[in-house]
Design goal:
The protein is built from 8 helices and 9 strands. The protein has helices at 4-20, 24-36, 40-59, 85-103, 164-181, 199-211, 222-235, 313-317; strands spanning 69-77, 130-135, 141-148, 154-159, 189-196, 251-259, 266-272, 279-284, 290-293. The strands form 2 sheets. The protein has a 5-stranded mixed β-sheet with strand order 2-1-3-8-9, with helices on one face. Strands 4-7-5-6 form a 4-stranded mixed β-sheet.
Length: 318
Amino acid sequence: MIPISLIQSTAEVLMDKAAIEIPQDYLDGLQHAAKTEDGDLSSFVLKAMLENYEAAKEDRRAMCGDTGVPRWFVKMGNDARVEGGMVALEAALRRATANATNGVPLRPNRVHPLWRTDHDNNVGIGAPEIEYGFEPEGEWIDLITVHKGGLFGTDYRMLFPSDGMEGIKRFYLDTLMAFGKRGLACQPAIIGIGLGGSKDICMVLGKRASILRTVGSRNSDPRIAKIEDEFKELGNSIGMGAMGFVGKNMVIDCNIEVGYCHTGGMPMSVHAFCLSSRRAVARIHADGRVEHRTDPDWFTDYQRRETVEWEPQKEAAE
């Protein structure tokens, strides 16, 4: 049984880490971009952001004034048990969000869409979002917090099978151009593409691809992995760099996730994480151990399964 007090205390640590500490995979990608960028203003922005990250870590302050909208992803081993159940877990994550808003501090960005009511703690109706995933074995819980930019940096289009790969490329490039020209995203960024699913799931796939995959990871389907490499290069060929200035490093990486969709359509979404890619992860074990990492490890073989029944890999190997 995992104590609810341990879940809340771990969640509060994660909120602090996500706001202040850049994940190493993204930092490595950004440093590579800074070394290869030759656009004057893009180079200036990259240099300033890298210096800002160092200052944020040293001063223990949020790396960006707009700390986005905190959200949670919870993945559980099938045998995990939580003190008080799932209602208690959600309450703990909401308390952690409120406490961290005042403690880190984070900007209280959440308001009622009509009345603009603001509780000054990033908690309200449907906020923070809490999404769940499960794995066949284990007594652990993974807590993943992502501080996602909450205004722009996303687009959706219903394509059709006849549009093919050329249609996918066209929408991808149209979206990146709009992000850069209209200031709809803070580049360079991890770009996530969702293909398939229903309209809402398509948006989820793209967002998860951008925020729950690390730089350098590749889809387990080698054909999709090849497209990811191609799209990273394609996104960096349009002549835009940091914050939409002239340059050649707009995309730190491109991640693609797919879901089965209606036979008559091919929905597609494009998401940009942002220049401040904020995520933090911890696994809480049943014996009270807490292991921190930066890779969400969300897209396992089980999460991408195509079969009706699931056989653990060790049995399938036998």
